[in-house]
Design brief:
Blueprint (H helix, E strand, L loop, with lengths): L34 H12 L45 E4 L10 E2 H7 L5 H9 L3 E3 L2 E3 L5 E2 L6 E3 L2 E2 L8 E6 L30 E2 L8 E7 L2 H8 L7 E8 L6 H7 L1 E3 L2 E3 L3 E8 L2 E8 L6 H8 L4 E9 L2 E2 L8 E3 L2 H10 L3
Parallel strand pairs: 1-4, 10-16
Antiparallel strand pairs: 2-5, 3-4, 3-6, 6-7, 8-10, 8-18, 9-10, 11-15, 11-16, 12-13, 14-15, 16-17
Helix pairs in contact: 2-3
Length: about 350
């Protein structure tokens, strides 16, 4: 049984040194060769089965009859199945754009195309269909020029991040790596995995994963976003796969949903689901919004099921998917838009 964030039955997870193991057939329960557990974990990590689902951001106006059903950022590999935008910008009445027009600015459709939304022609169609907002107002007329430095532009509720100096990264942290940019004890840390082009950037890691925990860790130089994602008032959900001993007694799920008394107060999970089991082990998926230190491990300890292995698969709308362990990837514009919206930006 191996809760692994990789897809396609590759079944690789990190060992103490962070180096992934190769899958082996006929492995013992709980080992890398447990194909059933690896496949189920990978399916949950990558959101398999949802391909082709079209989400337009909740409150966005429907395209006109006969218009192309174009999807913004349709060429991006990640972020295609993130669902409706959470907390989309408020949509006001259609506006001719005159009060937002900047004669020295850039044409709106060109800004959108440069941000990777779609071709300029398709962007023009999106504007005419009422799917584009500038500073909270729907724009339906072509010709608007905007100040790229100050304008807030959203397509189907997905805000565009137009500041080129902003970085939004996902790191698949292996086991044995500490969640710091530098470690005085010489342990492997985040900076050991950053490529040269990011080495001199002032990046924040959003929250922490303890040294033994694997999985998704967001990195950014957007201080406001990092603060909001970690602030308890925004209640950003996080999804984990937990391997523990089995079989698990009935009632543990309800106990965790109702709340478990810990030394720093009562904590409960938002969702609890048994993914699979083999003799002596179970794999559980839990969702919770608490950001307390080592909260998942402490919860499972409190109910008598110490964590054997822990992988974080998702933070807010961002999923680990099939990203390789130890790798870092740049979030797409669609993912960034969903992430900003999840904390009211």
């Amino acid at each position: 049984m191996t809760p692994t964030p990789r897809s396609g039955g590759q079944g690789r997870g990190g060992n103490e040194g962070g180096r992934p193991k190769r899958p082996q057939s006929g492995g013992k329960p709980g080992g890398a060769g447990s194909k059933s557990f690896g496949e189920r974990a990978a399916k949950r990590a990558s959101g398999a089965g949802k391909a082709g689902t079209r989400h337009t951001g909740g409150k966005a106006a429907a395209p006109k009859k006969g218009a192309p059903k174009s999807r913004p950022f349709g060429k991006e590999r990640f972020g295609q199945n993130l669902g409706p935008v959470k907390n989309p910008p408020s949509r006001n009445r259609a506006n001719d754009g005159q009060d937002m027009h900047d004669p020295d600015g850039v044409r709106l459709q060109k800004v959108m195309a440069s941000a990777g939304v779609a071709s300029r022609r398709v962007c023009e169609e999106m504007i005419e269909d009422g799917r584009v907002e500038v500073d909270g107002r729907i724009v339906t007329e072509l010709g608007l020029r905007v100040n790229v430095e100050t304008a807030i532009i959203a397509v189907d509720g997905i805000r565009l991040q137009l500041k080129e100096n902003m970085l939004y990264l996902v790191f698949n942290k292996p086991k044995g790596v500490v969640s710091t940019m530098d470690d005085p004890e010489g342990r492997r840390n985040i900076s050991d995995f950053l490529k040269n082009k990011y080495a001199h950037e002032r990046l924040f890691h959003v929250g922490r994963l303890d040294q033994a925990t694997e999985g998704l860790l967001l990195l950014t130089n957007d201080g406001e976003l990092a603060n909001r994602l970690t602030h308890p008032s925004y209640q950003v959900p996080k999804t984990y796969l937990v391997q523990t001993k089995g079989p698990m007694e009935s009632g543990i799920s309800n106990q965790m949903k109702k709340g478990v008394e810990l030394e720093d107060g009562v904590t409960k999970v938002d969702a609890f689901k048994l993914v699979d089991s083999t003799p002596g082990h179970v794999l559980v998926e839990v969702v919770l919004h608490s950001g307390k230190n080592r909260i998942v491990r402490r919860l499972f300890d409190a109910v008598g099921y110490p964590v054997e292995r822990l992988v974080r698969l998702q933070v807010g709308p961002i999923r680990l998917g099939d990203q390789k362990q130890g790798s870092i990837r740049v979030l797409g514009q669609q993912e960034v838009g969903h992430l900003l919206a999840s904390v009211g930006l």
